Recover the amino acids of this structure.
DNA sequence: TAGCACTACTTAAAATTTCAACAACTATCG
DNA sequence: CGATAGTTGTTGAAATTTTAAGTAGTGCTA
């Protein structure tokens, strides 16, 4: 249980530190950055709102707010989905891609400096394995509990 | 870098899940719970606002808000610090201690179920070591940067 | 022992996030 | 078809969190 508390505290400090660094040298928030990364990797550089919310672990309304803000700043655009007219897609703009490219090197350096440099190879491998497995399980749990009898 | 993203996503899901469980079976938020734990372990079951904010990784004003809310609900009290009259202490109340005792078993079970059950002993040891070290380093970095030339 | 810089915390206003409806569309069933 | 239920996502209000600006008290120093 001591480990559990160390995990919470260190994670909190880490996220705070990374967000501060990122904001200072690119003007992007952590959330902005992650949206840009996910869109840049998606086919057509576009994703449905629901899909994006799920990957970011954001509530739908939080994502709506996040995307409107990024849209005002020209980082993304919105298009309604041709196949399913209830749906909306967030689309990466040229300005968004540029912002990501400018922010990435500094952010990666910051991740390396605050986190990776502290870890040896075995630790990195363990963390990667553990959190990948945990993520899968938590996703599965959630799917099960929403599909079930609620 | 894949590990890094798995870590963020899984942590987010984990915290969300634990908060939901905790809220559902005790009415406490994650923040409430942590305040109660820290106070219950402190000598005299009381802590200075600054000390508490630091351990929770909360901004000062966020802690002021958090404590006022807990005070309205009778979970903590406030006393001004005799030694330093700028200071204030948050003090655990009997009701606060009771709330913690009622919430703890369920919360621990939830941590076990969502996190610990997924890990073997070596992994737990690694995570504990890694995050303890990381927390120390991030604390040290922050102290260094605030003491320095600003 | 008055002045000045700093510390500890609070407050008010702005930004963000959640929560509880809602609107629009799709899919299924009779 | 036409009603009904379920999806997708948005909106408005309330709750929370941040940011910037206080307020009060401490402590050094001259």
């Amino acid at each position: 249980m001591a480990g559990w508390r160390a995990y919470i505290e260190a994670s909190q400090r880490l996220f705070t530190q990374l967000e501060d660094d990122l904001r200072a040298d690119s003007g992007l928030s952590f959330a902005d950055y992650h949206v840009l990364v996910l869109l840049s990797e998606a086919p057509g550089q576009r994703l449905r709102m629901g899909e994006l919310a799920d990957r970011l672990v954001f509530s739908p309304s939080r994502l709506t707010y996040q995307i409107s803000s990024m849209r005002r700043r020209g980082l993304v655009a919105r298009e309604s989905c041709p196949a399913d007219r209830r749906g909306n897609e967030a689309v990466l703009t040229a300005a968004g891609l540029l912002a990501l490219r400018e922010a990435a090197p500094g952010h990666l350096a910051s991740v390396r400096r605050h986190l990776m440099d502290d870890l040896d190879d075995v630790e990195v491998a363990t963390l990667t394995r553990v959190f990948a497995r945990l993520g899968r399980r938590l996703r599965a749990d959630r799917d099960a509990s929403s599909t079930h009898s609620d």
Remarks:
- The mean pLDDT of chain A is 94.
- Chain A has six helices and three strands.
- Residues 121-147 of chain A form the longest helix (27 residues).
